[in-house]
Amino acid sequence: MPNGVFAKSLINKSMGQENPKQDQIFQESSPPKRSLRQAIEVISSLISYSLPIKVFAVKWQLIRNKLEELNSSLIAIEDCDSCQNPILSGMVSAVLASARDCYDLARRCVDLSYSGKLLMQSDLDAMVAKFDRHVRNLSGIFTAGILSQGFAIVVSRPGVNACKDDMRFYVRDLLTRIKIGDLEMKRHALVNLYDVVVEDEKYVKIIVEVGDIVNILVSLLDSMEMELQQDAVKVVAVISGFDSYKSILIGAGIIGPLIRVLESGSEISKEGAARSLQKLTKNSDNAWSVSAYGGVTALLKICASVDSTAELISPACGVLRNLAGVDEIKRFMIEEGAVSTFIKLARSKDEGVQISSIEFLQNIASGDESVRQLVVKEGGIRALVRIFDPKIARSSKSREMALRAIENLCFSSASSISVLMSYGFMDQLLFFLRNGDVSAQELALKAAFKLSGTSEETKKAMGDAGFMSEFVKFLDAKSFEVREMAAVALTSLVSVPKNRKKFVQDNRNVGFLLQLLDQEETNSGSKKLLISILLSLTSCNSGRKQIASSGYLKNIEKLAEAEVSEAKRLVRKLSTNRFRSMLNGIWHS
């Protein structure tokens, strides 16, 4: 039988317009259950019948969406004791009456027998509203407690390799339970929803595609039931991690409810809301929306409160770090005392809080000299140096973040470097160069390399502290990058006369450089770096003497003859003044 005939037949049968034989399907059913089964079959058939309709496609898609919601609701309550309720029976009759009207509209659209487009559009809009009202009426009745978990049919979760239709049906069933179930059913459905989105991201796409779920999740964020709020926040936090779906959440108006959760939700709900906002404000996206709802104030209050947990403070810091990219919001944070708040947080024993607060301080001070000075003034340098201190137990990640922040906040200012040195930073850096593991040594070397390119006073201090001998040790490292940083840093330090004299006092230093030079291939990058160091040492009489009297002089001559420009310069340097007679016959250009 064609879909249209079958649908019409079912509708007429259900409305008492036919007197057919008893169908087998209803032989053992009570009248209320028979009516409910008829409604489910009518709606399913009506959905199928409407699919080929070409005209008013958008309107019919809206109608089908409502019919699917309605069908899911009816299927979920089919085997409940609640179907005996007279209110529900009356509602099913109303659904069937609407289905009959909808069938007449569908038939006219299929036959193109409607009288006018505007009139048909108006009739279809009214039909969408009518089915939406049925859905809301069902929700209202069962929220009152008529439907309970104990009597509802439980749809099994699809297997790992389930098709999309099965997954969609399962999600729609969960949606129905969230909409019309009692508290226990709603919670159970939300927990199941969270489980599937965590384990399989295909469910996230289905949730976004299935109408109303996102809107319902957003509405549940304002629920007075803390358990529902917590469960909804968990699902939202997962969805917000997908860039392609963030706009859907924003379009559903999620920012305001998330801020309200931060202000008055449970601790667990607040944590989930902060994590969601951290993802939604990445790259300063939606910053003004967060600010407009009072989010900046709420987040600063969380970070400043002694009652806030580390699990809440870390994502809250992350949101504020994202918002600091907007200058006006950054200024507001500073006026509200954010700098001193986050310097206090940097002293926390919790690694996550430490790292988040350090990242915030770096972000807020980046490219802004006045804020950088404020961080220094408020004690930021002392806090960072303490985190970096090898005598205090810290995670390697915390130390790494502290060192990077020190570089960014201090190395551009001579006065800040002086403050650093007064706190013992040089000794700390030297400790990690000598005793750290490979990654710690490399980080310390990079910092020392940058520090060696600052003021002459700093270079002198590094020379006195013993950095030159440590740089020498890195000159034969396997990594060219490490060799290059060590060579450039050493060249920078020996450019200071006091450091040159100290360096050549140990004959092993110059001898080691010459030995490495002999091992390197002609024109290699490392060879050029070594020659540049030797060139700096020729500015010192003792240095020239050690090089000229070494057994490696012939090697330097060969390099000059091989057109290595730095070697030519070195030969010329060694050939001047009182060493000219000693080097008579050495190649000249």
TrEMBL record:
Entry protein name: Vacuolar protein 8
Domain of life where this protein originates: Eukaryota
Matches recorded under PROSITE patterns: ARM_REPEAT
Domain named U-box: residues: 172-431
Record keywords: Repeat
Organism in which the protein naturally occurs: Salix dunnii
Entry keyword annotation includes Repeat: yes
InterPro entries (UniProt xref): ARM-like (IPR011989), ARM-type_fold (IPR016024), ARM_PUB (IPR058678), Armadillo (IPR000225), DUF7032 (IPR054296)
Record-linked Gene3D superfamilies: Leucine-rich Repeat Variant
Keyword Repeat in annotation: yes
DUF7032 domain location: 37-146
ARM repeat residues: 294-338, 337-380
